[in-house]
């Protein structure tokens, strides 16, 4: 779905003011409430907006240690590995990748001991040939998507006729 500048402004306002209703968002953006509601519905139904859950700071929630783990897996074992990874609560995300590793996992734990336990559990899988872990020391760029969407809208010259921002 192609996003225009009003879509980006709305997404930014929703991120910056997550508890704001359509009326408040319309005031912040200088557009009609019906426009905001229609845009929100379109963003939701197209799958651009996938939820409104709270952002959670893992460190504040007691998960002080984060690591990225690459997995080399047995040929044709991706489905089995996916099921195994889903069963491990410390595995937050996992992606099939190209290159020397087959899967990249994001892991969070309360301690080095729990990280070691997670790595041992991963290596018990008959489908995982090798794992390599890298401990995160700090965040350089926090997860974000809006700068990318803003650039894409600008490159297309996408303008929202009703938006005065």
Structure, described:
- The protein has about 160 residues and is an alpha+beta fold.
- The protein folds into 2 domains: about 5-55, Arc Repressor Mutant, subunit A, CATH 1.10.10; about 65-135, Alpha-Beta Plaits.
- The chain has 6 helices and 4 strands.
- A 4-stranded antiparallel beta sheet has the order 2-3-1-4, with helices on one face.
- β2 (about 90-95) and β3 (about 105-110) form a beta hairpin.
- It is elongated.
- The relative contact order is 0.21.
- The mean pLDDT is about 95.
Structural shape: elongated
String of helices and strands:
HHHEHEEHEH
Which blocks of ≥5 consecutive residues have pLDDT under 50?
A: none
What is the radius of gyration? 21 Å
Biggest pleated-sheet summary: 4 strands, antiparallel
Strand order of the largest sheet: 2-3-1-4
Overall structural class, as computed from helix and strand content, comes to alpha+beta
CATH architecture of the largest domain, by name, is 2-Layer Sandwich
- How many domains comprise the coordinates? 2
Share of helix, binned: 25-40%
Query: What is the CATH topology descriptor of the largest domain?
Result: Alpha-Beta Plaits
Q: How many strand segments? A: 4
Distance between the termini: 21 Å
Mean pLDDT: 93
User: What proportion strand?
Assistant: 15-25%
CATH superfamily of the largest domain: Lrp/AsnC effector binding domain/regulation of amino acid metabolism (RAM) domain
- Give the class-level CATH name of the largest domain: Alpha Beta
Number of helices: 6
